[in-house]
Design a protein that fits this description.
Blueprint lengths: L4 H15 L8 H8 L3 H13 L3 E4 L5 E4 L8 H9 L25 H16 L3 H8 L5
Antiparallel strand pairs: 1-2
């Protein structure tokens, strides 16, 4: 499964907002600069993350972005699914995918693809943005 550039930008924005919790609200320009995200794409991504309930915004000169629920440890997988869709290695494993696969139900690869999906989901769902920050900054859990 390859994550889209949009999804990678969304993850990096969530990371930066989580990282800078002491500086909330964080301005979009600061997020863009810190995470090398083109500002014109970032605004749309932030709006989508806001619609998803991951972040909130504050308007005005002292405005910016912050986590919607600072106490909640958001799993990376939750953001990936919201931005990009299900964590599946092949299209036929998506909802309604059986209609597009001539071998559905008798495919020799299905078990392997299911194992790959489960392994990826376990990693993404078992990792929060706070975990990434601790790991990146060499802190223990």
């Amino acid at each position: 499964m390859v994550l889209s550039q949009k999804c990678q930008y969304a993850l990096r924005a969530m990371y930066e907002i989580t990282l800078r919790h002491d500086d909330w609200p964080v301005k979009s320009g600061e997020i863009a600069a810190a995470q090398s995200i083109p500002p014109r794409f970032l605004e749309n991504i932030l709006a989508q993350l806001k619609r998803g309930g991951f972040i909130e915004s504050k308007r005005g000169r002292e405005g910016g972005y912050m986590l919607a629920d600072p106490e909640r440890e958001t799993p990376v997988g939750e953001v990936i699914r919201f931005i990009q869709g299900p964590l599946v290695p092949v299209h036929c494993m998506r909802e309604g995918g059986a209609a597009t696969c001539d071998l559905y139900g008798s495919c020799a690869f299905h078990g392997m693809w299911e194992q790959a999906r489960a392994a990826v989901a376990e990693i993404y769902d078992g990792t929060t943005f706070s975990d990434l920050i601790r790991e990146h900054h060499g802190q223990s859990t």
